Amino acid sequence: MNSKNRILVIEDDIQIRKLMMTSLKSNGYSVECVSDGNAGIMALTGAKADIVLLDLGLPDMDGVELIRKVREWSQIPIIVVSARSEDEDKIAALDNGADDYLVKPFSVDELMARIRVAQRRILSAEMADETNTVFKNGDLLIDYVARIAYLKDRELSLTPMEYRLLCLLAKNVGKVLTYTFITGQIWGNTLESDVASLRVFMASLRKKIEVDTAHPVYIQTHIGTGYRMLKL
Ligand code: CA
């Protein structure tokens, strides 16, 4: 199986580019670096990359604009690596289709961990297809036809709302979903009160699927931003 290890780095800061190049190569990745958005889009049309690491402050365009353009034709995982640390910046990038967001300065270990999450997402997306009626992740199984979820072969007693939430996370496994995206998908709108409700539903869903809710393994919280189901 292809290990999905070709990384495209779109970053105008030469020091960070060098750091990424060195650390990625020493971890066995093949790396291509470009220093602006248009060169990044050109490289992506060549389809020679599996994962993109994207800076937001680029000389010729904003990274969010690049994400929007690329998402018109590609679902390649995009991990934003940016000095912008505000929730609004993260949300704008994620809502426009980024998979993940890492704030500079970052640790190389953390970067590698995020890349592995993206690699697992590609592999699971390749295994699943439109006709898939079952979702499997660790001990979790969702039978979309019967509309039943199982944990370790034990049927979970989920409310309709918990089931919808679980399916939404499962269908986007590996991707950080923002509060507004989730509430928009589930309730069709994004009122402040919906985010509060979402937290309540998420807490009750977690009690049913996580062995230890203080250390969740299936659903990660991204504080101020949203949630992600990890591919185990
Ligand atoms: Ca920059």
Could you describe the 3D structure shown?
The protein is of the alpha/beta class. It has two domains: about 5-125, 3-Layer(aba) Sandwich (Rossmann fold), CATH 3.40.50; about 130-230, Winged helix-like DNA-binding domain superfamily/Winged helix DNA-binding domain (Arc Repressor Mutant, subunit A), CATH 1.10.10. The chain has eight helices and twelve strands. It has helices at about 15-25, 35-45, 65-70, 85-95, 110-125, 160-170, 180-185, 190-210; strands spanning about 5-10, 30-35, 50-55, 80, 100-105, 135, 140-145, 150, 155, 175-180, 220, 225-230. A five-stranded parallel sheet has the order 2-1-3-4-5, sandwiched between helices. Strands 6-7-8-9 form a four-stranded antiparallel sheet, covered by helices on one side. Helix 2 (about 35-45) runs parallel beside helix 3 (about 65-70) and helix 6 crosses helix 8. The protein is globular, with a radius of gyration of 18 Å. The mean pLDDT is about 90. The structure holds calcium ion (CA). Calcium ion binds near residues 12, 13, 55, 57 and 58. Calcium ion (CA) binds next to loops.
